[in-house]
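Predict the holo structure. Ligand: magnesium ion.
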Amino acid sequence: MESLHCGIDFGTTNTSAALCDGKTVRVLPLDPANDLPSSLPSLLYLTRDQEPIVGRRAADTFIERNVDREVVLELVDLGVDIEAYVASEPDKSESYRPSARDHDMREAVRAHALQEVNSPGRLFQSLKTLLRHREFTTTEVFGSLYQIEELVSLVLKPVKAAVDAAAGGDVSRAVFGRPVRFSLDDGEDRLAEERLRTAAHIAGFREVVFFYEPVGACVEYAVAVPEERRLMVVDIGGGTCDVCVMQFGASGGTAERLAGSRILGVAGVPVAGDAIDREIIRGKMFPRFGKNARYGPSRLPMPQYLYNNILDWQNLYKLNTEEIIHWLIAAEADCDHPEGLRALRHLIQHNLGYPVAREVEAAKKRLSAAEETSISLHHGVIQIEERLERQEFAHIIEEQLEAMTESLTAAESAAGVRPEDLDLVLTTGGTSLIPAVRALLEDRYGAGRLHRRDTFTSVASGLAIVSRHL
Ligand SMILES: Nc1ncnc2c1ncn2[C@@H]1O[C@H](COP(=O)(O)OP(=O)(O)OP(=O)(O)O)[C@@H](O)[C@H]1O
Ligand SMILES: [Mg+2]
């Protein structure tokens, strides 16, 4: 029996794995709790006693244990000057920062360095995006230090177990996908790949070879359809938009066709579904939480950092201090949008940042099938039904669509082709389902040349084929 060859697509949002025996490719079930068992949500929840929970259960456990829980914060003198600069000072504008001369504030800052004493666990999302951040080396989770590589390996370990179980033995070699650009900075890009390699080693893949993710999707199609083709793949997922142009010949079997294929050009940007979710939160949710309110006798704007913590929901609980809550109550009593500030206070006190992010993402997905939807959040004084129509959505994400267009142009020019030179444009990745993204592609390449491949597994399938023919 021929041995099995493995392809792994560790995604920002979803991870998938496939095995190829030379004849067929099998996408593996990785998460029975997920709607799509072939996709493992790339989520990690670490409990207080360091138990890792991965995939759909990580999200469910976080919601169950963290939302609505009473947060108990403990005063610890860390000597850090973050998060407390507005404390008990309702009349500071958002540009205010405590200075060395500000003795009262400095004391307040030191006294309010807080740690949570009763947190049951921590949720990590979009770990792949963290790989490129030099400053993110380790994080402390309940007294233990974790390196970013270790956190990623905790997501990959159940994938390795599933691969081994399906293969009936230890599969030590795998072809891993990587985005065309983890980062636009070369140093960060190399760092991210090295970290992913280390994470894969820790998970038990002793030999790791990297291929660009869109190359995987291109190979998957070319092997299924043995014709002479100049193909473009556009893979837009949670973290990155990746484009590649490849040339395949018609003659021979899979091995000959792969050997004769050429990558003509690639391009990519770290802009995709996560960036889009953030734009929706900024555009549609911030105003509902009083972002545009003016408070106090001089009608000052609201401090920006409160809202950044909604985007950075993992740290939202840090705002739940007596000082900030009292400040919000004071501001609420003298402002032009008290319901917004009340909703903001409720959001903070009940740690609802993650449910907001989830509902925004769900609404975005609904808009791929419906002309309009409503972002629906109902919890205590938060009673939000925010209508979102496709046209407005497309307007909100103009900058992201622009970045995607630039990477199409960059891939065409790297390959030395014009749009009309391409035989087919294959699309994959969850964000490629957004109608505004499809419209952009249709305008450029014509609807007739667009062809959708499996949204969540085509990359892993192609990488398994590459692994077989390396
Ligand atoms: N029906 C849909 N409409 C719009 N967006 C969607 C849809 N389904 C999924 N998405 C979005 O697609 C993204 C996930 O896609 P995918 O699983 O392809 O990404 P990934 O492979 O994990 O990420 P990356 O390749 O960037 O590392 C998420 O941002 C998700 O919200
Ligand atoms: Mg992907």
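Confidence is low (pLDDT under 50) at residues 80-113. The CA atoms of residues 73 and 116 lie 4 Å apart.
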